[in-house]
Fold each of these.
Amino acid sequence: MSQNETHKAGFVSVCGLPNVGKSTLVNHIIGSKLAIVSPKPQTTRGVLKGILTTDAAQIVFLDTAGIHSPKDKLGNFMVDAAKTTFAEADLIYLLVECQKPRHDEVELTRELRTTGKPVFLVLNKIDRIQKDLLLPLIDSWLGLMDFKEIIPVSALSGENTDRLLELTIDNLPQTPAFYPEDILSDQIQREFIAEFIREKIYKYTQEEIPYSTAVVVEEMKEREEGGAYIRAHIYVEKDSQKGILIGASGAMIKKIGLAARREIQQFMGYGGVYLDLQVKVEKHWRENIKALKKFGYARQ
Ligand code: GDP
Ligand code: MG
């Protein structure tokens, strides 16, 4: 058989409560920095794709925001975004920590059962528990739904993730790759870059700033003199937040820009990135679904 006839490709939705290790797992598998990994819950917003391409298979990961009880429209959207990825998925990972099912996870399995898709129960953070506790723990999950596979892993150390990949590929349809091997789409590049910027905002500002922030990469172009020009807008809700983000004599925005630029250069594989950051006030953007669409949080 020719390679084309045996090639596998498909979409894998990675769902689970905040902080269980979804971003860490996808990042480990893809081998590059995809979404923000942070001890603070809910730092991944919207749906980011990571793509793993090998000779035999292509896996497109849909890294959903953590499913949780929504508090505002943004929260609601995040739940919806996670659910819509189920419809696109060929396979779903329910990622959980090595512990008994929590209330929201029981609810989630109810939702997952209705999709009719194969679901892998991925028990993450096995580096944290004694091995002899694993079997009784798995027992506590068995009654919830009919999992296609149950795979304990450590996203952090990579333990057993090879096995997870093997089983994943087994469960994907036989079809040629959807995306070229080494090209990240423009949209994905922009998502990466916005994430790098967001990550620096989280790192350097106080708590009330990050959750009131949206980053949109407005423009990306090669510069005639070499390197790239990137213009991004940072949206906040209040003038006071704009003030904090810019800082005294622009010190804060400079710090964020410098740190983000360093990572963007590394990611793009060349120096000479000019990063133009502009802070804009858009009141109540969280409540404004139209704005969410513009910010790429809502997909058409
Ligand atoms: P997400 O909200 O589900 O995307 O979770 P993250 O990937 O951001 O991870 C949340 C926290 O759990 C981070 O501090 C990770 O370093 C940590 N973490 C993720 N996977 C593992 C693991 O396998 N073992 C341990 N010990 N920690 C992990
Ligand atoms: Mg995450």
Amino acid sequence: MTKLTQETARDLPAALSPGYVPGDHGVGILHLGLGAFHRAHQAAYTDAALAAEGGDWRILGVSLRSTGIVDALAAQNGLFTLTERGDGPDRTRVIASIAETIAASRDTEAVRRAFERPEIRVVTLTVTEKAYGFDRAAMDIDPAHADVATDLKDPRNASGVLGLLTEGLRRRRDAGLAAPAILCCDNLPENGALLAAGVLGFARRVDPSLAEWIEREVSFPSSMVDRITPAATEETTARVRDQFGIDDAAAIECEAFTQWVIEEDFPQGRPNWEAGGALFVKDVAPYERMKLRMLNGAHSLIAYAGFLAGHVYVRDAMQDAALVRLVDRHMKAAALTVGHLPDIDLDTYRGELLARFANPSIAHQTFQIAMDGTQKLPQRIFAPAIEALESDADMAPFAFATAAWMCYCTGIAEDGTPYDLRDPREVEIRAAIGKTDKQDAKAICDALMSLPDFFPAALTNNATFKDACTTRLQVILTKGMAAAILQEAG
Ligand code: CS2
């Protein structure tokens, strides 16, 4: 079997090959988080930009935890195949935008040193919500977050996200280098402002003059990113092997749809990401709200309700007519909280989302989406729930999604099988509901609503919302999720 490398890539059909000679282009982007999503999204946009316009914009990719992806990419000269799977035939191409890789767990100093390279003009991040260590309510760092706490003690040897960014920026300032733009690509609300607040919060504690420099010099544009990308499986690799006769240990597959809306604020320049379809706007917030509340909110509903009802993949859940009615209802309620977008009709968007979720070629596990609920629910479910309550709109969809998450927190499937919650607050959640009677919805609801810094007071103090959650959780616990879905869907 032929391994994918620079040499073997030359023999591939032209349609697969990058439209440029990778070695002709230098590095310009430092990216943290080399997971599937980055390879299906920013790496693909950068690839399109390089093909369209050239430039020294290849990516130095850092994997913060896993070393496997770094080894796989290093053995393939950074190349990997991306297969887009939508309505039409699959479309596979070789992405060549990743030039170099670092496994942070093996060599963290190499990551810190990467910031010292003058050619780095943009830093991008896909590290997941939980990796940062924000105190979102205070728009500051959470000093209790494990990485933040460790890095505050030894900032020059930082290895967590906020610590690394701060130390990287310190080195740039001290070397007299221009500040890069730092672009957060995680599913967080106002992710640019939040990341700025986190980095500044960290810097203020270790070096106030650095904080001033960062405030003056560093731009943190916000961005909304979207492309459904399940974790790659053996089938992903097998498909590429069978179709093209190449062995690609970093192969990835995703849906055909893709969207990237970015705030235009790149003082040192940026790739022509428009070539991949990116949209540059002044204010990303309404796009973010739409995506987080309609797509991700409905995704979380599907994850918890679908997983508990026995649906392994989102596409299976979308065959459950009653659950689809709830998904549609959820998106309608969420849409009411989004506001006006000049170029997007929210009814059309909702219809597209239903079709995207049902995509039979995408094997996206409900259990994968269910993870990290405490990091996801605030922006996906709680924020629109509060707005729905304020405007006297229907809050039942948000209460049902919340109740589904609460049932998921019990950690026991309906057939009695235990599962890990895969949430950074798993221990706390288990401690909170450990002693409660697993049939007592009120006790579980009270316990989970009392987790510190999680449920907003606007929800816990609202008897209507609390009752709506408790009643629904009681139905789920008593009758099972499938029956509860049917009852809720009416
Ligand atoms: C999903 C997202 O896992 C999750 O929480 O909701 O990863 C979702 O697939 C992406 O945001 C789609 O762009």
